[in-house]
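User: Hi! I have a protein structure encoded as tokens and I'd like to know what sequence might fold into it. I'm fairly new to this, so please keep things simple.
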């Protein structure tokens, strides 16, 4: 199995595979779509693979990839977040039971965002002094989700965006495995819209209409921002705010466009956003600090949309900030 553009993760895992000395607790962080779950599976394969190399082909690896391995436990939540009860009954108590088929057991707890300190407290003892056979992987959007004590016992890995080449290669592999034909043009458009976020690129290429609509609107928003047209900017942002998901996707794309402008200004590097023309105009029009402010404002609005904040209010605040630059 190959992890695209994730050398910062594959290198330490390969080192652990070589020595056979694995850490028992892992924290994987990064935004949605960057491959946290894929990284967790790769790690589980590294721990359970018959060939000790996450080959993707042996019996253990194939069962992990299908989500059918009895010793790779993807822990479910009873409610929206992991409760203390989930942690005690499904992780702590279970980890003292011997593995079914391998000599190790791997627990995966995904999307730990929002879980309580009490749930994490329930894990402290087991992560400090784990049974020899038990390994734990936690994923969340950011490291700040975790208590310092849990962080100190874990190896923290941040998944980052793939480069354009890696992103297109990963999409090509994904679609050929599924036996779906997707044109190069479509793959390229997906990479334009979502940069190195492989998960979102795949959603886009699969024809996610919300994402396609967001990509169209973000070009118009970038255009208005590049021209300093505060009125159109406010109207466009307001029109997005009816759908929280569409707005969040659009804001993430907008952040890439602004980031491209900053990169062009600093060193004239390559663009990864969906509106290169607008990025170039913005680079000419705005100072570096103004672009940074815009980037932060878009990031803040995206975070608000991800939470439970009113999307219209977020749009109004952002329009004010972008228009004022
Ligand atoms: Zn294998």
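Assistant: Happy to help. Inverse folding works backwards from shape to sequence: for each of the 325 positions I chose a residue that suits the local structure. Here it is:
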């Amino acid at each position: 199995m190959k992890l695209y553009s994730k050398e910062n993760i594959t290198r330490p895992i390969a080192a652990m595979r070589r020595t056979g000395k694995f850490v028992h607790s892992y924290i994987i962080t990064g935004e949605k779509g960057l491959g946290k779950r894929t990284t967790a599976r790769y790690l589980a394969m590294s721990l359970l693979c018959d060939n000790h190399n996450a080959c993707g082909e042996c019996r253990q690896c194939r069962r992990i990839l299908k989500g059918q391995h009895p010793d790779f436990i993807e822990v479910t939540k009873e409610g929206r977040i992991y409760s203390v009860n989930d942690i005690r009954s499904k992780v702590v108590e279970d980890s003292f039971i011997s593995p079914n088929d391998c000599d190790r057991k791997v627990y995966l707890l995904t999307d730990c965002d929002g879980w309580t300190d009490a749930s994490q407290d329930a894990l402290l003892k087991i992560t400090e002094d784990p049974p020899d056979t038990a390994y734990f992987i936690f994923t969340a959007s950011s490291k700040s989700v975790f208590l310092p004590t849990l962080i100190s016992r874990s190896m923290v890995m941040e998944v980052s965006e793939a480069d354009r080449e890696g992103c297109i290669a990963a999409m090509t592999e994904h679609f050929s495995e599924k036996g779906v034909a997707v044109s190069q043009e479509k793959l390229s458009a997906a990479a334009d819209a979502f940069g190195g976020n492989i998960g979102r690129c795949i959603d886009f290429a699969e024809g996610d209409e919300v994402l396609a609509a967001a990509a169209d609107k973000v070009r118009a928003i970038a255009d208005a921002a590049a021209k300093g047209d505060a009125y159109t900017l406010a109207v466009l942002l307001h029109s997005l705010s009816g759908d929280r998901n569409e707005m969040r996707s659009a804001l993430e794309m907008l952040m890439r466009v602004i980031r491209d402008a900053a990169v062009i200004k600093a060193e004239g590097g390559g663009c990864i956003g969906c509106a290169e023309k607008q990025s170039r105009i913005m680079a000419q029009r705005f100072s570096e600090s103004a672009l940074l402010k815009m980037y932060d404002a878009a990031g803040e609005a995206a975070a608000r949309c991800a939470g439970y904040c009113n999307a219209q209010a977020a749009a109004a605040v952002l329009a004010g900030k972008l228009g004022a630059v």
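A useful reference point when you look it over: The pocket of zinc ion is lined by residues 45, 49-51, 55, 57-58, 60-61 (CB under 6 Å). Feel free to ask if any position seems puzzling.
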